[in-house]
């Protein structure tokens, strides 16, 4: 079947090396045929096999007291007690989004939702971490508009609220935007569904959209090669999203997950049926015997190669107990979904594919012949692993050099102008333009809406896994009866538990600039900030998922960045006790041959044992004290301010002292839980001045402003610190708090106990925003005027 | 010129652009289209002879557009979407199959030379030839065996190109006759869409066809340039004039055919599979926010001639048999919302009728109008 | 044993693609304490219900037009009969769009003027308190209720709008915090800032905002309760729909 001509092209055509080809011949004991080689090419691609990254990913801690399922399954799962299990996972869809932003982003959302409901979890929230080029090019604006609309189109239609995320702009992402999507799901009881094809004789079904030629070689090849102009020609590889079918799949699969005939489910993502089938078999140590002529097709004449490699969206592979297949088909029929029995589980560990007839579209005599036969494990788990060469990249020494003497401090009267400039920077400005396009309230769990440090959702005891009573004629059969049948708490149970509702806090974070200037610090900082954000919402950090976005791993400098970022993350995970439950790696992210900043993105899950104790960033009451927990050091490297005034990303990023960080987070969480503070807000991009402004912008009516001395925030060892560093430096481990004056003493005592510096900066006032250095005002404006700049910047840049 | 456009390819007679933002409509459409710009540059004998023909780009663009439109209406899939001004057209993105398909009705050019036929001698049977598109090799003549060996196209694709080429010959031969043009021979190129469908691409113009005047056999094509016959520009303009006039006639005839039900072809009589194309637009009295946004965008891009834009839906139906009444009912009940939308539809045969049945005439459509 | 107070019986229709059905179920059952059950789109019997809710979402993906396909669901024929019998129907967001497509309310929906999906809290002015859906409200009361839609730009022929206004059938209007129906307060371009209307008989309400999203203070507003409380008060005072047969099931629903 393979093309005539140069043999050397055979493995190159599917993106493998000669060594890898030799390995395949060794595994099979013969030369692979065209279909088999294509399957190996996909499964052993960087995107599917993590062959370059897996030796490093092992450094990350993956176990913790609440972690039930770690990496390796479709998503991680944490047990939050009270019968609440939460599944969460993040994935990148960078290259497809750069090529076709709407469909690329939409199919990215679809893929991550499937990873969650595959586990038997009801998806309850999505967050998106996005990176684009500066908005002064039409291309960047086109990508932003398309990606945001694509996320909205998919999330809104499927009824999963998009509750948060982040968006940053830097020209390194101009051609290669980053679209990292996280989904969170809720399970009841202990029934986690695994993607395993257990027990020979069980029956394999393919469910959902029909299989077409779309996306053959799509996600995996796109994500496993350099991103250049040629990628444009790969546009046909991008699939079209069908959120309606996804919504039906969610309902059908969740209904299935409460049925005792179910064995396992896996979604068909990158590498399509090849990946789903080999993973399900390999995880269970079984084999699969599939008749691919039974795969429902959208186009005639597809050959086995095309069927196995198609990346048509919204499809699931389902294994059910032998003899129960009719019931499964009934459930899918009820939801109006295509489902076909395509084979069975075997005991020999082989993924065996049969086809009927004599090839493309031909009518045969009805007999089948084997068209591929590969050990499932070889495809899914035995890809080679490489420890590619690493070397400190040449740019670092120069980029880290920052001579602050050459960056003059603004004149006293120029600070207001600089401050306005920062508020208008798209990296700092209000992101409402983005999230108002997302339905962030559906499922009525969102208690802290987008815009604060972390989104907070309540966990409903009766969050329905399935819609009970459907299809039944007798009105009295539901809801009570059906609740019993599915083990879901009744309204009375809920009432008994009333008074305490559990919740989760969610945040995504990552600063590519910091990681560019110091990958180790950048890795640690991303974890620290994500944890800090959920702490500021009043939640205890539980664990994290992540996307690691990097350039070409064949460049030793990039590999060095990758390793250092992981080392930094690993250390932060250990100290902050937030294990990694999964994630993905995206390599080959480049703009015009220039690598993107190494960009780790962390998706943190936090737990609140009482949602009444949730916290938000905005001030609550005029007259309250404004405080800073943590202290400001002279750190301007890598800051948004430095970029604004010098146009450069340069210097050492702010240091991350994980011991301080841990103490700070424990103090802030204790203060919130003790009901001592009115608000808590992380100091991030733009430094203290921007953080204080955001506290005022997000405040309750009557508390929209302050009068504060920023010099009170500094390390007493450095009394002569530059004022621009105090205002705009991005020192880590700092949180702005506000509290009632009567609570001050308790709060100081508590801070002392935790060993955290706590300084009062000033007082919440309504209407005016005044920052002083000592007694002298540096910035003195009406809050409304500043807020208008901050709110208008993004819509104006985009419309 | 919009500087946000990216040039993808420049050939002897055309430039292919990637549409700039907004140029090709919303992102989804832009993602599936290119812009073809027709140049005035002329070359012949594989680039050995070069020159310019004033206005050629415009003529080729508009003639191609009219003929593509005709073919589309006759059910031949082409890459043509719409014209963008005089020299440019928006086309569907395809991967060009590197094979030129030449159809010959009358001996001329290289065929006459190669086979020693007298130029102008009608051929007993239509001749179909393949040429391998390769500048280095000088576009050699090849046959199906060569095509397979070079893996230029799959067998079903070759079949498809050949049957489309012959069908196009039938359609164009008759239609151009009405314009006073004899279709001596012509060259086609095909492309694969992202779904793998093979459709007609490139152009159909005096650059790629030999047109002789039906009365005088005067040459009205690029041979005037190749052979230095003079009046090249005039000949091109004449072709455009005649094809434009012809297009009017074709339209009238389509409407006529609609009226005279007795002469409807098989597919329109409900005896043959058909495609219905339904167009749904917002009523003129209803504000169209999408249209307003597109109109605004077009003006911003400098298209001052745009007076108004209405955005609608285009729906194709594959039918086992045709009943215009039922299509109309589908429109009223589901496809359009009569409160805010108007609709119309037209019908084209799905495939050529079997041998023995009359060839399809002009496409028959039955229009409907919402309340 | 003392008899429990009569609870009103709600049905929440589940179309393929409905996604606010569970929210309505939660708000009505767990928060308002009423009887509620899901009604599958293929169901053809609505006996015993007092109020049918057509929830928000993207029925059939909102492909073709919002609500265009859902209105052909078998249950919709039954909903029409239910309305004739005097039953209450509440169409929220996509439910409103379905009611328009089904011709049970006049007019149609266009895409939002911004051409974007909008999810935000809006202020609504109660224009008519003499309906089963607003009897618990004060005249002119301002409610804070979220919207979440891409096609909520209500339109109708001028004479239809005039008739709606004249007969008090515009029930909710988008206003600003001060209660003024300004263009800035209009989130989608809707004619006359219309957010919700009733049919001539007054027993069918369609509105774009989501009252089921704000029945608990925890969520940021509990103003949605007014609408559900109105329905409950109406049914308790006036009784449920006329049953096609006497003695409908469901524990004391009086015809």
For the biggest sheet of chain C, the summary is: 9 strands, mixed
Query: Which residues of chain A form runs of ≥5 with pLDDT under 50?
Result: 1-5, 359-364, 467-497
CATH topology of chain C: Rossmann fold
Shape of chain A: globular
Sum up the structure in keywords.
heterotrimer, B: 371 residues, alpha+beta, D-amino Acid Aminotransferase, Chain A, domain 1, Mth169, Chain: A, 2 domains, six-stranded antiparallel beta sheet, five-stranded antiparallel beta sheet, 9 helices, 31% helix, globular, C: 255 residues, alpha/beta, Rossmann fold, two-stranded antiparallel sheet, 21% helix
Could you provide a short overview of the structure?
The complex is a heterotrimer of chains A (799), B (371) and C (255). By secondary structure, chain A is an alpha+beta fold.
Task: Lay out the secondary structure.
The complex is a heterotrimer of chains A (799), B (371) and C (255).
Chain A: H1 8-13, H2 18-28, H3 34-43, H4 46-49, H5 54-57, E1 67-69, E2 76-81, E3 84-92, H6 94-99, H7 101-117, E4 122-132, H8 138-158, E5 162-169, E6 178-188, E7 203-208, H9 218-222, H10 229-233, H11 243-257, E8 262-267, H12 272-284, E9 287-291, H13 304-309, E10 315-320, H14 325-334, E11 339-346, E12 350-356, E13 368-375, H15 376-380, H16 395-400, H17 415-424, H18 432-435, E14 446-448, E15 455-458, H19 480-486, H20 491-497, E16 503-509, H21 512-517, H22 519-536, E17 540-549, H23 556-576, E18 580-586, E19 590-591, E20 594-595, E21 599-608, E22 625-629, H24 640-646, H25 658-673, E23 679-682, H26 687-697, E24 706-709, H27 723-728, E25 735-739, H28 744-754, E26 758-764, E27 768-773, E28 776-782, H29 783-798
Helix pairs in contact in A: 7-8, 7-11, 8-11, 11-14, 22-23, 22-25, 23-25, 25-28, 26-29
Chain B: E1 6-10, E2 14-18, H1 27-30, E3 33-38, E4 41-44, E5 49-52, H2 56-73, E6 80-83, E7 88-92, E8 95-106, H3 109-115, E9 122-132, E10 141-142, H4 144-149, H5 155-177, E11 181-192, E12 198-201, E13 209-213, H6 223-226, H7 232-259, E14 274-282, H8 289-300, E15 312-319, H9 324-335, E16 341-349
Antiparallel strand pairs in B: 1-2, 2-3, 3-7, 4-5, 6-7, 8-9, 8-11, 9-10, 11-12, 11-13, 14-15, 14-16
Helix pairs in contact in B: 2-7
Chain C: E1 9-14, H1 21-31, E2 35-40, E3 51-54, H2 74-84, E4 88-92, H3 94-101, E5 108-110, E6 118-126, E7 142-149, E8 153-155, H4 158-166, E9 170-175, E10 194-198, E11 204-207, H5 225-238
Parallel strand pairs in C: 1-2, 1-3, 3-4, 4-11
Antiparallel strand pairs in C: 5-8, 6-7, 6-9, 9-10, 10-11
């Amino acid at each position: 079947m393979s093309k005539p001509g140069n043999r050397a092209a055979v493995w190159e055509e599917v993106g493998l090396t000669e060594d890898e080809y030799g390995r395949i011949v060794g595994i099979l004991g013969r030369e692979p045929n065209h279909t088999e080689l294509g399957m190996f090419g996909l499964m052993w691609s960087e995107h599917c096999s993590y062959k370059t990254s897996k030796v490093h990913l092992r450094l990350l801690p993956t176990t913790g007291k609440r972690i039930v399922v770690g990496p390796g399954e479709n998503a991680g799962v944490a047990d939050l007690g009270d019968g609440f299990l939460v599944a969460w996972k993040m994935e990148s869809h960078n290259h497809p989004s750069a090529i076709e932003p709407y469909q690329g982003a939409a199919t990215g959302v679809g893929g991550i939702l499937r990873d969650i409901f595959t586990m038997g979890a009801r998806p309850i929230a999505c967050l998106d971490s996005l990176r684009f080029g500066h908005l002064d090019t039409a291309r960047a604006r086109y990508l932003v508009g398309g990606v945001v609309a694509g996320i909205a189109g998919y999330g809104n239609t499927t009824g999963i609220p998009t509750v948060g995320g982040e968006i940053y702009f830097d020209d390194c992402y101009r051609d290669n935007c980053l679209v990292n999507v996280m989904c969170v799901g809720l399970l009841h009881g202990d029934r986690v569904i695994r993607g395993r094809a257990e027990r020979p004789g069980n029956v394999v079904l393919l469910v959902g959209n029909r299989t077409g030629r779309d996306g053959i070689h799509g996600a995996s090849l796109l994500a496993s090669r350099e991103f250049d102009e040629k990628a444009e020609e790969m546009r046909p590889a991008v699939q079209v999203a069908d959120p309606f079918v996804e919504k039906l799949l969610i309902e059908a699969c969740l209904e299935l997950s409460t049925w005792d005939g179910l064995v396992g489910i896996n979604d068909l993502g990158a590498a399509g049926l090849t990946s789903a089938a080999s993973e399900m078999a390999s995880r269970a140590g079984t084999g699969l015997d599939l008749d691919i002529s039974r795969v429902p097709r959208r186009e005639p004449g597809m050959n086995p190669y095309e069927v196995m490699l198609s990346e048509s969206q919204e499809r699931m592979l389902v294994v059910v107990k032998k003899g129960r297949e009719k019931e499964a088909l009934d459930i899918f029929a009820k939801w109006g979904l295509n489902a076909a029995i395509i084979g069975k589980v075997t005991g020999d560990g082989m993924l065996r594919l049969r086809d009927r007839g004599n090839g493309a579209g031909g009518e045969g005599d009805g007999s089948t012949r084997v068209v591929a036969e590969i050990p499932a494990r070889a495809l899914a788990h035995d890809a080679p692993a490489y420890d590619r060469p690493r070397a400190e990249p040449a740019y670092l020494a120069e980029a880290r050099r920052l001579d602050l003497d050459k960056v003059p401090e603004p004149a006293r009267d120029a600070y207001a102008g600089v401050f306005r400039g920062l508020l208008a920077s798209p990296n700092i400005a209000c992101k409402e333009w983005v999230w108002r396009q997302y339905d962030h309230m559906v499922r009525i769990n969102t208690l802290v809406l987008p815009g604060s440090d972390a989104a907070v959702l309540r966990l409903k005891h009766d969050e329905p896994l399935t819609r009970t009573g459907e299809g039944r004629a007798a009105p009295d059969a539901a809801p009570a009866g059906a609740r019993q049948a599915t083990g879901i708490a009744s309204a009375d149970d809920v009432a008994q538990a009333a008074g305490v509702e559990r919740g989760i806090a969610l945040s995504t974070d990552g600063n590519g600039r910091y990681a560019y200037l110091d990958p180790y610090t950048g890795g640690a900082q991303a974890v620290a900030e994500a944890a800090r954000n959920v702490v500021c919402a009043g939640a205890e950090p539980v664990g994290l998922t992540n996307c690691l976005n990097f350039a070409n791993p064949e460049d030793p400098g990039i590999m060095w960045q990758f390793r250092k970022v992981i080392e930094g993350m690993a250390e932060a995970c250990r100290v902050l006790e937030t294990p990694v439950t999964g994630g993905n790696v995206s390599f080959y992210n480049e703009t015009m041959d220039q690598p993107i900043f190494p960009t780790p993105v962390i998706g943190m899950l936090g737990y609140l044992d009482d949602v009444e104790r949730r916290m938000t960033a905005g001030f609550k009451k005029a007259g309250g004290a404004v405080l800073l927990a943590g202290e400001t050091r002279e750190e301007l490297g890598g800051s948004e301010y430095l970029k604004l005034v010098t146009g450069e990303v340069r210097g050492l990023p702010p240091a991350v002292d994980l011991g301080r960080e841990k103490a700070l987070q424990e103090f802030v969480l204790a203060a919130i839980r003790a009901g001592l503070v009115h608000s808590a807000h992380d100091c991030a991009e733009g430094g203290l001045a921007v953080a204080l402004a955001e506290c005022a912008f997000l405040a309750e009516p009557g508390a929209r402003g302050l009068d504060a001395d920023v010099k009170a925030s500094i390390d007493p060892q450095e009394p002569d610190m530059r004022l621009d560093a105090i205002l705009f430096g991005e020192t880590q481990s700092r949180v702005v708090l506000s509290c009632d004056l009567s609570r001050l003493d308790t709060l100081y005592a508590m801070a002392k106990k935790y060993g955290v510096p706590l300084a009062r900066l000033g007082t919440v006032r309504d209407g005016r925003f005044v920052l002083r250095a000592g007694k002298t005002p540096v910035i003195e404006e009406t809050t409304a005027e500043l807020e208008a700049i901050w709110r208008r910047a993004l819509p104006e840049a985009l419309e | 010129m919009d500087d946000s456009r990216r040039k993808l390819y420049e050939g002897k007679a055309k430039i292919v652009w990637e549409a700039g933002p907004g140029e090709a409509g919303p992102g989804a459409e832009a993602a599936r289209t290119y812009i073809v710009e027709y140049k005035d540059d002329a070359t012949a004998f594989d680039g050995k002879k070069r020159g310019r023909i004033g206005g050629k780009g415009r003529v080729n663009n508009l003639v191609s557009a009219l003929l593509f439109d005709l073919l589309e209406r006759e059910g031949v899939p082409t890459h043509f979407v719409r014209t963008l001004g005089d020299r440019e057209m928006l086309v569907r993105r395809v991967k060009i199959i590197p094979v030129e398909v030449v159809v010959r009705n009358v001996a001329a050019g290289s065929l006459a030379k190669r086979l020693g036929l007298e130029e102008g001698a009608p051929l007993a049977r239509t001749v179909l030839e393949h040429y391998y598109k390769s500048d280095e090799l000088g576009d050699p003549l090849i046959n199906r065996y060569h095509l397979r060996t070079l893996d230029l196209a799959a067998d079903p694709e070759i079949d498809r190109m050949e049957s489309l080429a012959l069908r196009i010959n039938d359609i164009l031969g008759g239609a151009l006759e009405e314009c006073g043009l004899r279709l001596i021979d012509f060259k086609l190129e095909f492309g694969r869409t992202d779904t793998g469908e093979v459709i007609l691409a490139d152009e159909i113009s005096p650059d790629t066809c030999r047109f002789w005047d039906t009365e005088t056999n005067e040459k009205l094509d690029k041979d005037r340039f190749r052979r230095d016959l003079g009046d090249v520009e005039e000949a091109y303009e004449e072709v455009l004039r005649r094809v434009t006039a012809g297009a009017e006639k074709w339209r009238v005839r389509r409407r006529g055919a609609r009226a005279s039900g007795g002469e409807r072809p098989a597919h329109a009589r409900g005896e043959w599979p058909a495609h219905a194309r339904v167009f749904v637009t917002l009523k003129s009295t209803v504000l169209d926010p999408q249209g307003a946004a597109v109109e605004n965008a077009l003006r911003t891009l400098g298209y001052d001639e745009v007076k108004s834009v209405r955005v609608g839906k285009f729906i194709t139906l594959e039918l086992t048999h045709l009943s215009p009444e039922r299509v109309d009912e589908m429109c009223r009940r589901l496809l359009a919302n009569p409160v805010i939308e108007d609709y119309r539809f037209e019908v084209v045969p799905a495939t050529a009728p079997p041998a023995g049945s009359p060839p399809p005439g002009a496409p028959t459509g039955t229009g409907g109008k919402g309340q | 044993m003392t008899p429990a107070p009569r609870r009103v019986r709600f049905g929440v229709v589940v179309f393929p693609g409905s996604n606010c059905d569970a929210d309505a179920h939660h708000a009505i059952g767990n928060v308002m304490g009423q009887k509620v059950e899901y009604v599958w789109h293929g169901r053809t019997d609505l006996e015993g219900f007092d109020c049918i809710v057509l929830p928000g979402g993207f029925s059939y993906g909102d492909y073709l037009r919002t609500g265009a396909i859902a209105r052909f669901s078998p249950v919709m024929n039954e909903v029409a009969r239910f309305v004739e019998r005097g039953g209450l129907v509440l169409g929220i967001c996509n439910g409103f769009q379905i009611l328009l497509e089904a011709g049970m309310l006049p007019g149609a929906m266009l895409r939002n003027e911004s051409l974007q999906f909008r999810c935000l809290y809006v202020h609504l002015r109660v224009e008519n308190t003499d309906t089963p859906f607003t009897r618990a409200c004060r005249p002119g009361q301002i409610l804070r209720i979220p919207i979440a839609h891409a096609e909520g730009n209500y339109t109708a022929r001028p004479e239809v709008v005039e008739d709606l206004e004249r007969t008090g059938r515009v029930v909710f209007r988008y206003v600003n915090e001060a209660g003024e129906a300004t263009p800035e307060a209009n989130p989608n371009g809707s004619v006359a800032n219309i957010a919700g209307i009733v049919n001539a008989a007054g027993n069918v309400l369609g509105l774009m905002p989501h009252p089921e999203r704000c029945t608990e203070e925890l969520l940021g507003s509990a103003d949605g309760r007014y609408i559900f409380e109105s329905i409950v008060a109406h049914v308790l005072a006036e009784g449920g729909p006329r049953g096609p047969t006497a003695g409908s099931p469901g524990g004391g629903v009086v015809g």
